[in-house]
Structure formats: structure tokens, C-alpha cells
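Batch manifest, entry 17 of 40.
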Amino acid sequence: MYAFEPTIASRPARATSMNLPVSPVAFAPIQSRRTFEEICDRIRLRIDAGELRPGDKLPAERDLAVQFGVGRNAVREALRSLEIAGLLELRKGVKGGAFIRSGDSGRMNAVVRDMFSLGSITVDELAESREHVQDLVVRLVCERATAQDLDALAANIDRTEEMTKAGRYLDRVECSREFYRLLGAATRNGVLAMMVQSITEILMQFVYARVAAGGPPQPRLVATRRQFLEAVRTRDTEKAVSLMRTHLLSVHRMLRESFTGEAAGKPAAANQKPRSGGQPRASAQRRS
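Output type: C-alpha cells
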């Protein structure tokens, strides 16, 4: 025991010397874990050890019950829990069963979104994180982007221009979401790609809600995108980083101005997912 940690026996004496009421130390009773949690841990351990890989099928429910020595209800509850966690896919039918899933980056999106909804993180924190993360992303893209990556970005910018000319600004927002996804993929770093997607996703909800409410779109978006792509093509890292940082600062400043007066900077529609998961309500937004 460390010298600075009082023993249980010494605590009453210390309390008496400080003229504090003496109370016995109480501990909550130990409770055994629920069976389905133990089953989940056993399966996770096999995945961690590489014994179960994406696409592998688990034994049938009745066989798992026999192997674990538990009832089928406990097995069924464990499989549902692992499905919710994104580790399993439960398929029905003759060829159905429980299959190990590939990694799901959407899980990180959900965690960040929940933390934002609960007030654990703010819009300003997300914006600041995005600016710094994108600096690193752009540097890696300038270093690692292939011809195929550059062609995909160019095609995205062409679509963005088409949506702009047609006045389809909500579709243009979707093009922007895809643009940042392509940048993340071009880093060849799965962790960075997930970070970019999860941070960008929430802030793009603000952009979507603002545009849906009639807020004016950025007039030089396409031109800025083309300048940025040219800098990446020529591997002019500092110019590419500067262009991206300037653009993001402008977007984030616009969003803050649009939502001034909303509690904690969170408009009601910001917690609604855009088209990919349900369109946010524009009526809760204020026109900029």
C-alpha cells in the first residue's frame, strides 16, 4: 500500500482528530456478470486473436449454447449485442447465421454525434479539430495521392460545378461531403479517414441545414476547389494547405454567424442527419 493512502483502520482515528463524524466504510455487494456479457467477451477475444476474421460464420445458435453451456436466450442476446456494436451481421434464411463484419467507420461517426448531442463537445471544438486535422490530411494527400485519386477529385469538382449552375445547392452540399471523403481516402490512412469523416459529418449537417433554410451558398467554391486540386497535382503542399485552411475558416465563420444566439451554438436541426440519414428540418434554421 502506498504511504499516502490511509488504511481502513486509520480512517476513524483521523476523522475523530478532525472532529468529523465517524462512519463505517461500506462496499456494494459483488454481483456476477450477466451470461450474455461473458459470451460477448469470449467472441471478442477470438476476434482480437485473429481466430475469427471478417466474413467468418459463427456456429449455429444451438451449437453455441452447447459449447458455452448456457441457454439459447443468452446466446441470442449476446449476438444481438454484438450486432448493435457493429461486430456481427445477422442474416436470415437457409444460408443465414451470424457473420463477422468488416470494420465499420460509421460507428465512430455515431460516437462523435452522440457526444455532440449530449453537449460533451462543442461546435467550436469540432471546427478547430477539423482545421488542424485537414492540415495533416492535405499534406499526406499531396504526398500520396495517385492519378486515380486526382481523377476522382476532379470528377467531384465537375459535379459540384454542374449542381451550382443548376441551382441545386442541397445536391452541392452532398458533393462537398463526398469531396472530403475522397480526401480522407487519399491519405491511405484509415484512422485519419475515419477522423475526417466523423468530424466533417456533423459540421456538414450545419451547412446542409443553412442551405435548406435559404442561406446563400459560397460563390467561389468551385474556383477554390480547382485551385486546390491544381496545387495537389503539382505537389505544392504549402499552397494546398493554405487554400484548404482559408476555405475552412471561411465556412466555420459563416456557420458561427448564422447560428449566433442559438444555445451553445447548436440549432435544433443540426442534430438531424442530412439526406444520407434523413433530411434536417429547415424550419428551425435562421436565414443568413
